From TrEMBL:
It comes from the Bacteria. InterPro entries: Gliding_Motility_GTPase (IPR052705), Gpn (IPR004130), P-loop_NTPase (IPR027417). PANTHER family: ATP/GTP-BINDING PROTEIN-RELATED, GLIDING MOTILITY PROTEIN MGLA. Belongs to the GPN-loop GTPase family. Keywords: GTP-binding, Hydrolase, Nucleotide-binding. It comes from Streptomyces guryensis. The lineage of its organism: Bacteria, Bacillati, Actinomycetota, Actinomycetes, Kitasatosporales. GO terms for molecular function: GTP binding; hydrolase activity. This is ATP/GTP-binding protein.
Amino acid sequence: MVSEHSDAQDGETAALALKILVAGGFGVGKTTLVGAVSEIRPLRTEELLSEAGQLVDDTDGVDQKVTTTVAMDFGRITIRSGLSLYLFGTPGQDRFWFLWDELSQGALGAVVLADTRRLEDCFPAVDYFEHRHIPFVVAVNCFTGARAYGAQDVSRALDLDRGTPVVLCDARDRDSGKEVLIRLVEYAGRMHTARLLDSVG
């Protein structure tokens, strides 16, 4: 979580920048989401898939994908005056998960993108954030041609903790992505406030 304070003498309000992770399985739309909502040109660390990677990367269901994120994606979006989000998209393949610990340092919360055609691919991300008590929402990326499932169906299938939000979205659409991020900030804010009250109580 990064805080930026402006000069109070100028009459400006303090600006707050929050760190958000965008996680999920390989090919689920993390890079697409960060690129769709970012108001700056997103930083991407994509490389072409290689023959060597075919032995370790599961590309079932994403046969058309030709690139992969090898470190992170980065973007920024202003939610309202004085509140910006710094978005860090995590790499999806197992072999890059060692980067998650570094990326998650100081994060307010996370978006776990899910594809109902390969729902099991987001289990590692769900487990990661649950075990580290990092608030997260599950955002179901509604791919064309995929069978539609309701939020409750997805919540039960993933065995989510009670109250964990599940939202439907289109990762290509800026407004849809922004709604997911607002939902996360609201949820994470409630979670952090409740923990603070518990600690002082």
